[in-house]
Amino acid sequence: MQIGPLTFRPRPVFLAPMEDVTDISFRYICKGFGADLMFTEFISSDGLIRDAAKTIAKMRLYDYERPIGIQIYGHLPDAMVEAAVRAEAAGPDLIDINFGCPVNKIARRGAGSGMMREPDKMVEITRRVVEAVKLPVTVKTRLGWDDESKIIVPLAERLQDAGIAALTIHGRTRCQLYKGEADWTLIGEVKNNPRMHIPIIGNGDITTPEQAREAFDRYGVDAIMVGRASFGHPWIFREIRHYLDTGEKLPPMSVAERVLLAKRHLAKSLEVKGSKVGILEMRRHLSCYFKGLDNFKETRLKLVTLTDPDELYATLDYIGEHWQ
User: Fold this and answer.
1) In 10 A of CB 3, how many CB atoms?
2) Domain ranges of the chain
3) Alpha-carbon span 203 to 142, nearest angstrom
4) CA Rg, the chain, in Å?
5) Distances (CA, A) of 316 to 132, 163, 272
6) Residue 101 among the catalytic residues
7) By CB count within 10 A, which of 13, 15, 171, 197 is most buried?
8) Quick one: CA torsion of 76, 125, 97, 5, rounded to 10 degrees?
């Protein structure tokens, strides 16, 4: 599969961009488990052109992450063009436009999936960004604003005509947020539209290796994107790849293996963000690595309240010693 000059193995599995999740340390872990393409957290076009320090920090990239895309969002064409140019200067392999984020503070402003109510403007922004940068430009979007306006099939053609190199479709409307089940039928319809020739990437409710294979076999997508299912479970990329390649399922990761993984993740977070921020931003990950363990409430509380790295490492050792 090709996205511009980028070549991927058959049936690639991508890591979805997620705010406050897909930071440097989490991408490091997912890459180690075989994610074929990753993206930064969302980059606000407004924040980028204002030189907001936190926004700029999100664009720090490392060679081991490649291929990697920077994802930008916004609702003003001029700001999106300027943001795309600045993002390109950071050295990613592609620029992705977020027309899919459903959260109120973004969508109600007309950005993210709020753009589904203004398809002409969406296409204009896309065309102008494509013209402004040399890198491949991709788009991530949804089926439509609500059940009465599922416009993705004709919209996909228009976005392709605007020059994008690939299209990711999340199988829900904006109004669904993340509720209900993702509808892959329209994703398949876009993929099987004879007018479409760019890669179509399916996203939504891929939580098991079996669902991953069904997405490829039943709907014919060129790639799949895994989002929320990777949170607390980044080894899902290894599980999916093994199943796609062999038809066999890997055994569940042991507690001891998860402890080692959590330590590696924590070390990377401390390395790139320092002790204070590195620990604060790891809290959302650490407890999720140990979902389902019995009698874990007190230990989980430690994972999300301790502020000393040595105490955190000691708690992780304790988990490895007391749970199997």
Assistant:
1) 24
2) 2-246, 255-322
3) 9
4) 20
5) 48, 49, 20
6) yes
7) 13
8) -150
The two three-digit tokens of residue 109, written as one number? 């402003």
- List per-block mean pLDDT (blocks of 10 residues) for the chain, which spans 324 residues: 96 92 94 96 82 81 95 91 94 93 74 84 96 97 83 96 97 77 92 97 95 96 95 96 97 95 96 93 91 92 95 96 87
- From 30, 101, 175, 288, the catalytic residue: 101
Task: Give Cβ neighbours of residue 28 (< 8 Å, ≥ 6 apart).
Answer: 62, 64, 65, 265, 268
Its CATH architecture, for the domain 2-246, is Alpha-Beta Barrel (3.20)
* pTM score of the predicted model: 0.92
Q: How many CB atoms lie within 10 A of CB 10?
A: 10
Quick: pLDDT tens for 300-311.
999 999 999 999
**Tens-digit pLDDT profile for residues 162-221:** 999 999 999 888 776 777 788 899 999 999 999 999 999 999 989 999 999 999 999 999
Are the CB atoms for 137 and 117 separated by under 8 Å? no
255-322: which CATH number, 1.10.1200, 1.10.10, 1.10.390, 1.20.1260? 1.10.1200
Rounded CA gap, 192 and 200, in Å?
A: 10
CA-to-CA distance for 299 and 302, rounded, in angstroms? 5
